[in-house]
Specification:
two-stranded antiparallel ribbon, 3 helices, single chain, globular, about 100 residues
C-alpha cells in the first residue's frame, strides 16, 4: 500500500499488458492485451494458466497498458522490451518453448 498526501492508505492498481513478437513478420512487438484492475488480473491469470511467462515490471506494465491493443510498441520502449524478450527466451531455452 502507499500513502496519499492526506495520509490515507491506497491500494496500488494492478496494470498488465501482453505482447506478441515475430521477428520475421513484425518490426516491433505488438500489444495484444492491456488493462488495469480486473482486466490486468485476468491478463495475468490467463497467461499463467496457459504457461506463458509473466515478467513483473510495474513501470513497464503501466506504460504498456496505455498503448492501444494492436499497436506496435514505440521506439522508446525497444530496449526495455528487449530485456523482457531475453527473459522469455531464457525460459524457453531452459524449459522448451510453449506448444
Amino acid at each position: 500500500m502507499k500513502m496519499d498526501m492526506t495520509g490515507k492508505k491506497n491500494k496500488k492498481t494492478t496494470e498488465a499488458a501482453s505482447l506478441k513478437y515475430d521477428p520475421e513478420l513484425d518490426y516491433a512487438p505488438q500489444v495484444t492485451a492491456a488493462g488495469k484492475g480486473f482486466i490486468a488480473r485476468k491478463i495475468i491469470e490467463t497467461a499463467r494458466s496457459a504457461g506463458v511467462p509473466v515478467y513483473k515490471d510495474e513501470a513497464l506494465a503501466g506504460t504498456l497498458a496505455r498503448i492501444q491493443v494492436g499497436e506496435m510498441i514505440p521506439r522508446e520502449l525497444y530496449e526495455v522490451v528487449a530485456e523482457v524478450l531475453a527473459f522469455v527466451i531464457g525460459i524457453d531455452q531452459r524449459q522448451g518453448p510453449l506448444k
